[in-house]
Specification:
With 139 residues, the protein is of the alpha+beta class. It has helices at residues 6-12, 19-27, 76-79, 86-98, 112-122, and strands at residues 3-5, 31-33, 36-37, 43-45, 49-54, 57-63, 80-82, 125-126, 129-130. Strands 3-2-5-6-7 form a five-stranded antiparallel β-sheet. Strands 1-4 form a two-stranded antiparallel ribbon. The protein has a two-stranded antiparallel ribbon with strand order 8-9.
Length: 139
Amino acid sequence: MMEARIDKWLWAARIFKTRSIAADACKNGRVTINNVNVKPSRPVKEGEVVAVRKPPVTYSFKVLKAIEMRVGAKLLPEIYENVTSPEQYELLEMNRISGFVDRARGTGRPTKKERRSLDAFIEPTFGGFEFDDDDETDD
């Protein structure tokens, strides 16, 4: 029976774009084999179920062939079988429909709503009229 390192297999099966991203996912507890968190060096065998958490969805793959060399996208059906539950795909679709962006408040650029509230805080308007403290009227 063939074996391969889990980080190499995740990269070779095109689940992650680079091997270092796959290794980081393993280190951060986002990859499990048979419901057990794994390290990047853990060997994966044929027949095992690998679960990969990419928020908000947890994808599940049954290993059909343990490989360490990256293959073309057309050969992926020989490498793994996608056994992700339909509920996970519904969760993904609901997330896409809602349009909610998972961004921590205060990081990155402000949203339109946050920008408007900032502008309102900095330059308050009363009854549609703007008041400037700098202007003095000459009579």
